[in-house]
Specification:
With about 60 residues, this protein is an all-alpha fold. It has a domain at about 20-63. About 85% of the residues lie in helices and about 0% in strands. The protein is built from 2 helices and no strands. The protein is elongated and about 70 Å long. It starts with a helix and ends with a helix. About 0% of the residues are buried.
Length: about 60
C-alpha cells in the first residue's frame, strides 16, 4: 500500500517537472485581462438588471 502511495507522489513529481509556468509578465497581463473582462461583464449585467428592474417597476406600478 505504501509503495503505491510512494509511486503516486513520484509520478506527480515527474509531471510537475514538465509544467511550463508562465512568466511574471504574462501572469500580470493575463490577470489584467481577467479583471478587465470581469468589469465589462459586471457593467453589462448591471445595466440589464437596472433596465429590467425599471421595466418591472413600471408594469407593477411601484414607485
Amino acid at each position: 500500500m505504501f509503495s503505491k502511495i510512494r509511486n503516486y507522489f513520484a509520478g506527480a513529481r515527474q509531471e510537475f517537472k514538465h509544467i511550463q509556468w508562465p512568466t511574471a509578465k504574462a501572469t500580470q497581463r493575463l490577470t489584467l485581462v481577467v479583471i478587465g473582462l470581469s468589469l465589462v461583464v459586471a457593467v453589462y449585467l448591471g445595466a440589464f438588471d437596472f433596465l429590467f428592474t425599471t421595466i418591472l417597476q413600471r408594469i407593477l406600478g411601484i414607485v
